[in-house]
Design goal:
- α1 (19-31) packs across α8 and α6 (137-148) runs parallel beside α7.
- The longest helix has 17 residues, at 199-215.
- This protein is α/β, with parallel strands linked by helices and 217 residues long.
- The strands form three sheets. The chain has a seven-stranded mixed beta sheet, sandwiched between helices.
- It has helices at residues 19-31, 62-69, 95-98, 103-106, 114-125, 137-148, 158-166, 199-215; strands at residues 3-7, 35-40, 44-49, 54-61, 74-76, 87-90, 130-133, 151-152, 170-171, 180-182, 187-190.
- It has a single domain (3-215), classed as Class I glutamine amidotransferase (GATase) domain (Rossmann fold, 3-Layer(aba) Sandwich).
- β10 (180-182) and β11 (187-190) form a beta hairpin.
Length: 217
């Protein structure tokens, strides 16, 4: 059975993984007859109250919070190697741009969590497919932009697209229900909630994205 890594960043759209996107990713992997291998960095991050959308001053652990989505079946990303996986997918949510890297604050000058960068570089070096959803393509661009010049999409947001281009990556506009494939680098991305106004729109794009990732294995 193909093993697809799912890199989570917490639990909640404003301070971790977007829950719909994460669950749709897991569902799509299962529908393709593959096995999801959930993981997250064992690091603390600022918490946002999702009722008020304001930071609380509290900090929580990304691995502990992501375990809620994975129903406890999750690994510390430092213990996962590219050799353990056939492909990897990054759901969105601001955690992808705040906890896995700091693109949300620094744009193209972002730094990346070292274990996340390691795994991404290992996957790219091994020629294994990478999927990125919503804002997560900014992470891919930050890590791989200069070396591989990958093509990704976050939808149609011109400001974010401009920062992606500064990393050396190429941004391609894409409608919400579709996805973009960089066949050379085996990278697939879809806008999801960067554009979606209905949950069904996010689901359709993610389902297609995950299927395309698995087909590239």
């Amino acid at each position: 059975m193909k093993k697809i890594g799912v890199v989570l960043s917490g639990c909640g759209v404003r301070d971790g993984s977007e829950i719909h996107e994460a669950v749709f990713t897991l569902l799509a992997i299962d529908r393709q007859g593959a096995e999801a291998v959930c993981m997250a960095p064992n690091t603390d991050f600022p918490v946002t109250d999702h009722l008020t959308m304001q930071e609380t001053g509290e900090r929580r652990n990304a691995l502990v919070e992501a375990a809620r989505i994975a129903r406890g079946n999750i690994r510390d990303i430092k213990d996962v190697k590219a050799a353990d996986l056939d492909a990897v997918v990054f759901p969105g949510g601001f955690g992808a741009a705040k906890n896995l890297c700091d693109f949300a604050m620094k744009g193209a000058g972002a730094t990346v969590h070292p274990e996340v960068a390691r795994l991404l570089n290992e996957m790219a070096l091994a020629g294994k497919p990478i999927g990125a959803i919503c804002i997560a393509p900014t992470l891919i661009a930050t890590v791989l932009g200069k070396e591989l010049s990958p093509t990704v999409t976050i939808g149609t947001d011109s400001g974010t697209a401009a920062e992606i281009e500064k990393t050396g990556a190429t941004h391609q506009d894409c409608p919400v229900r579709d996805f973009v494939v960089d066949n050379k680098n085996k990278i697939v991305s879809t806008p999801a909630y960067m554009l979606a106004t209905h949950i069904s729109e996010a689901y359709e794009g993610i389902d297609k994205c995950v299927k395309a990732v698995i087909e590239l294995i």
